[in-house]
Amino acid sequence: MKNLDYQQIDPQALATPTPTPPPRPLPEHKPRRARRKWEVFPGKNRFCCDGRVIVARQCGVLPLTLGLIVLTSGLFFIFDCPFLVEHLTGCIPVIGGVLFVFVIISLLQTSFTDPGILPRATPEEAADIEKQIDNPTGSSSSYRPPPRTKEVVINQQVVKLKYCFTCKIFRPPRTSHCSLCDNCVERFDHHCPWVGNCVGKRNYRFFYTFIVSLSFLTAFIFGCVTTHLALRSQGGNGLVFALQASPASALELVVCFFSVWSILGLSGFHTYLVATNLTTNEDIKGSWSGKSGNEDVGNPYSYNSITKNCCSVLCGPMPPSLIDRRGFVPSDDSVQTSPVEIELSAAKNDTNMVGRAVTSG
Amino acid sequence: MVLQNKEFHNLQELRHSASLANKVFIQRDYTDGTVCKFQTKFPSELDSRIERTLFEDTVKTLNNYYAEAEKIGGQSYLEGCLACLTVYLIFLCIETRYEKVLKKISRYIQEQNEKVYAPRGLLITDPIERGMRVIEISVYEDRGSSGSSSGSSTTSSSGR
């Protein structure tokens, strides 16, 4: 009777689930501290708090953004609020406070969240993809072959998937490689220097909350400061007197005046993007705007309903981070291949015995 | 009748004492957009190792799990709105629906490995460990095989 080559595995004897890396190094290996994956991350990112927090290497003008917001709001609370509370209503600092908290928290979340980075392909995966692509014969190692693309039909629209030479994968739809962070990011919107991070699938909603609440905050402070100065200059005192009495308000006015237009404009633009389920990247490239005059080109990802688009972008399920920053680097990955040969010869005798036992049985 | 050979008592030993012959990669299927879905096309390398139906069942179940995780509906809107009101701080406290489904998926894959794939010398890697790009199936070499590997598996067999 012919028996199986692989015997039944006893489920109770299974120690750990499938090929996840062991959380601690094996005792036979020399005691080397197990490294976490963030320590060997190939992209240009910086990690804090043992991998819990991720930032782009060039944090851009994030300190400036934070500084401006904190400074302006601080001046507002210290110099304008007391006057306004006295003359108008006590709600003003409360509203201001809530908006300020919203702005700071969403800013920090946008900056410190993984935007949807795609981990690079493992060597075996890259080799598998290479096999599937036609390689022009006689190409030298220094010659880079023409960009490889794959076509896919999504919602009756032909979408081209490009091959990323750095990450060695075919980029999924709407994914783009950020050169500043050197990572492929899913649903790549743009790399925002103000926030010091890419804006992608996972942190777009934080970014949107940030700019919307910032526009409210800026407009609110602008309005309050104007009211404050107007009230002060009443009674024949004049604007100059009011400014002399409260010089901080002048600074706030200038900052708010210049930022409110750009922030409001940005919020409006992103509201349009959310409503049509587009990314900044796609909008700028004109991917779906029918540039060749072909009216049949439309956004294949749109649900053709503003509410549904908004809900799916802002209220959709939160996808997990794919880069597993705090996981441990598998210590037996390179080791796995070498002892196999050793085991092979040793086990050969055993299997022969088994084989004989089986066939006789 | 099952022969308990001590060298294949557990999955760890399978990995270390059997030799890794090949890795088969099941790619993503993007025809439905950016949702996570894998191709159900049966790879030719697995032709002699496992039945087509078993393989397709596994992939279809996985696809269903991912569809459930990414479903946009009443519950996800509620989660989203609540999160928005708390400035998304709620994500630091509770486990999202996606994470719950990922745990279910990982249990399912482990179960499939134990029951279906390991006995055939195959091992499925959870796609989350490969950035949800591929389902990696490791093919272990048939040991002491006389060329007529499985196809055997399951059922009948006797006297072929």
From TrEMBL, chain A:
<keyword id="KW-0472">Membrane</keyword>
<dbReference type="Pfam" id="PF01529">
    <property type="entry name" value="DHHC"/>
</dbReference>
<dbReference type="GO" id="GO:0016020">
    <property type="term" value="C:membrane"/>
</dbReference>
<protein>
    <recommendedName>
        <fullName>Palmitoyltransferase</fullName>
        <ecNumber>2.3.1.225</ecNumber>
    </recommendedName>
</protein>
<dbReference type="GO" id="GO:0005794">
    <property type="term" value="C:Golgi apparatus"/>
</dbReference>
<feature type="transmembrane region" description="Helical">
    <location>
        <begin position="251"/>
        <end position="275"/>
    </location>
</feature>
<dbReference type="GO" id="GO:0019706">
    <property type="term" value="F:protein-cysteine S-palmitoyltransferase activity"/>
</dbReference>
<dbReference type="GO" id="GO:0006612">
    <property type="term" value="P:protein targeting to membrane"/>
</dbReference>
<feature type="transmembrane region" description="Helical">
    <location>
        <begin position="61"/>
        <end position="79"/>
    </location>
</feature>
<keyword id="KW-0808">Transferase</keyword>
<keyword id="KW-0812">Transmembrane</keyword>
<keyword id="KW-1133">Transmembrane helix</keyword>
<feature type="compositionally biased region" description="Polar residues">
    <location>
        <begin position="1"/>
        <end position="10"/>
    </location>
</feature>
<keyword id="KW-0012">Acyltransferase</keyword>
<dbReference type="GO" id="GO:0005783">
    <property type="term" value="C:endoplasmic reticulum"/>
</dbReference>
<feature type="transmembrane region" description="Helical">
    <location>
        <begin position="206"/>
        <end position="231"/>
    </location>
</feature>
<feature type="region of interest" description="Disordered">
    <location>
        <begin position="1"/>
        <end position="34"/>
    </location>
</feature>
<feature type="transmembrane region" description="Helical">
    <location>
        <begin position="85"/>
        <end position="108"/>
    </location>
</feature>
<comment type="similarity">
    <text>Belongs to the DHHC palmitoyltransferase family.</text>
</comment>
<feature type="domain" description="Palmitoyltransferase DHHC">
    <location>
        <begin position="160"/>
        <end position="285"/>
    </location>
</feature>
<dbReference type="InterPro" id="IPR001594">
    <property type="entry name" value="Palmitoyltrfase_DHHC"/>
</dbReference>
<dbReference type="InterPro" id="IPR039859">
    <property type="entry name" value="PFA4/ZDH16/20/ERF2-like"/>
</dbReference>
Automatic annotation (TrEMBL), chain B:
<dbReference type="GO" id="GO:0006612">
    <property type="term" value="P:protein targeting to membrane"/>
</dbReference>
<dbReference type="InterPro" id="IPR019383">
    <property type="entry name" value="Golgin_A_7/ERF4"/>
</dbReference>
<protein>
    <submittedName>
        <fullName>Golgin A7 family, member Ba</fullName>
    </submittedName>
</protein>
<feature type="domain" description="Golgin subfamily A member 7/ERF4">
    <location>
        <begin position="24"/>
        <end position="136"/>
    </location>
</feature>
<dbReference type="Pfam" id="PF10256">
    <property type="entry name" value="Erf4"/>
</dbReference>
<dbReference type="InterPro" id="IPR051371">
    <property type="entry name" value="Ras_palmitoyltransferase"/>
</dbReference>
<keyword id="KW-0472">Membrane</keyword>
<comment type="similarity">
    <text>Belongs to the ERF4 family.</text>
</comment>
<dbReference type="GO" id="GO:0002178">
    <property type="term" value="C:palmitoyltransferase complex"/>
</dbReference>
<dbReference type="GO" id="GO:0000139">
    <property type="term" value="C:Golgi membrane"/>
</dbReference>
